[in-house]
């Protein structure tokens, strides 16, 4: 027997007709475009992208973790071992850093390549790192599994076009003041160059709120997942900028259906040369991963893990 509440719900609940596009507002705004990057004007299934040994965008959830900036062999190796043991399957770390102030640490640059390769060999992990200049593509090619385009470079069309000529995956972070439409079109620059291996990353946007560094736009994650063929991951570290809040936002990203997260972790954040306040300690990271795996189990989703 149907309860009175169920009967009332069935009378008042409306269902969107299946033949209508979900994002009519965006379609109207870009009515002259027949398609957006990697997808048509109707919802698509996510097309997974292989990053080294890891497939992002399939049933499994992927965690990319590591320091904001690679500072030394010891710091990078300790972080890599720690995040891998906790369940991360890809390693992040900045070689060159774009910073607001020219007086702050800008990364070690090419001098770090020797020990970076040693850390990757010891841990059997693969690296995701930010590229800040088209001239770095050739230099980075033999030590990265995926290029990361940072928020400031989302509109760097010369860089995006060059990355379109490569075949390595490209992670595009949303500009902190960018519309979803602009984010998608940034991906199109890479796709039109011939490289379809693009992953989108929501990393928070600027709003009128000042309590946190940025505002995580989970609307954009759900929207892109429903209407775009590119995998979509979340960066909760830059989104909030507060260490104690990052695990909850990471868990929210899991629940929202993101394909993965990219998180900053450091053995001793108080000593970090870049973004220490938003870096999880290795203990924090283990705690977060434990909660994430519980949520994934409830959603019947596996965690992407390395075999060794």
Q: What assembly state would you assign to the polypeptide chains in this entry?
A: single chain
H-E order: HHEEEHEHEHEHEHEHEHHEH
Q: CATH first level: which class?
A: Alpha Beta
Q: At CATH's second level, what is the architecture?
A: Alpha-Beta Barrel
Question: What is the straight-line distance between the termini?
Answer: 53 Å
- Helix and strand content put the structural class at alpha/beta
Query: What global shape is seen?
Result: globular
CATH superfamily: Aldolase class I
User: What is the number of helices?
Assistant: 11
- Reported by name, the CATH topology is TIM Barrel
**What share of residues are in beta strands?**
5-15%
| Structural domain count | 1
Q: What's the total number of strands?
A: 10
């Amino acid at each position: 027997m149907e309860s009175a509440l169920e009967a009332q719900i069935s009378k008042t609940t409306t269902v969107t007709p299946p033949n209508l596009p979900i994002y009519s507002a965006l379609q109207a705004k870009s009515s002259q475009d027949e398609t957006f990057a990697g997808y048509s004007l109707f919802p698509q299934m996510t097309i997974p992208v292989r990053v080294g040994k890891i497939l992002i965008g399939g049933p499994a959830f992927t965690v990319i973790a590591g320091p904001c900036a690679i500072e030394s062999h010891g710091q990078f190796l300790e972080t890599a071992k720690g995040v891998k043991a906790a369940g991360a399957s890809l390693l992040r770390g900045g070689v060159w850093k774009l910073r607001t102030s020219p007086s702050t640490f800008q990364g070690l640059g090419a001098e770090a390549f020797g020990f970076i390769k040693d850390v990757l060999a010891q841990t059997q992990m693969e690296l995701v790192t930010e590229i800040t200049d088209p001239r770095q593509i050739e230099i980075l090619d033999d030590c990265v599994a995926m290029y990361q385009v940072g928020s400031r470079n989302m509109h760097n069309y010369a860089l995006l076009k060059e990355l379109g000529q490569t075949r390595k995956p490209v992670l595009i972070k949303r500009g902190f003041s960018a519309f979803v439409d602009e984010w998608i079109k940034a991906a199109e620059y890479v796709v039109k160059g011939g490289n379809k291996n693009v992953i989108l990353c929501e990393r928070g946007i600027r709003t009128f709120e000042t309590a946190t560094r940025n505002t995580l736009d989970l609307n954009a994650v759900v929207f892109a997942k429903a209407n775009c063929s590119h995998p979509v991951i979340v960066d909760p570290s830059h989104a909030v900028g507060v260490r104690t809040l990052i695990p909850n936002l990471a868990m929210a990203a899991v629940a929202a259906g993101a394909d993965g997260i990219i998180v900053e972790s450091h053995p001793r954040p108080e000593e970090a040369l870049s973004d220490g306040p938003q870096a999880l300690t290795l203990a924090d990271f283990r705690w977060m991963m434990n909660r994430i795996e519980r949520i994934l189990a409830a959603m019947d989703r596996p965690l992407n893990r390395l075999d060794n």
